[in-house]
């Protein structure tokens, strides 16, 4: 008799078709992103890892918002993962305009401050390697000069990472809360096609 697999759920920040809270909160591992949405409780509360982009205005807003550290998902997270290695930010991400840096304190790289702030809130902080990012990009055809034009979404990077890091003989991976729409520099259609190919081959599943 085979051993029942453990369940991992990757929860995106899009609307959900129904209340998934029971399935999510009973999972063995739950991955969420950036500033997760409550969705009237439909997405549950369990958070094993909170994966965040450590560049640009979204991270700046989190680090300047002291209430973020009291946010339910942040407090429950066992650890914080930052998806961009400083080398990647320096090599491929544009600097904010000088006026924005001087007047609005914009930064390309918030890694150091994120470590100070989140570490100060007693969270372990993991920084993904440069190789992780480059391999994930290559998987969906982002290579060479495209690395300065197209940037994979945090959601894609999280799904890709789970499929690489977790033994699929022991884990069943489910995803929900993804619509593949948003920032114009994410390759949404390519990311969606890649995910659906993983669904078709049975390496992950939609939570329905």
UniProtKB/TrEMBL annotation:
Q: What is its main location?
A: membrane
MF term (GO), any: sialyltransferase activity
Q: Where in the cell is it found?
A: Endomembrane system; Membrane
What membrane topology does this protein have? Single-pass membrane protein
Keywords annotated in UniProt: Glycoprotein, Glycosyltransferase, Membrane, Transferase, Transmembrane, Transmembrane helix
Which Gene Ontology cellular component annotation is one that this UniProt entry carries? membrane
Q: What is this protein called?
A: Glycosyltransferase family 29 (Sialyltransferase)
Organism, by scientific name, is Bartonella choladocola
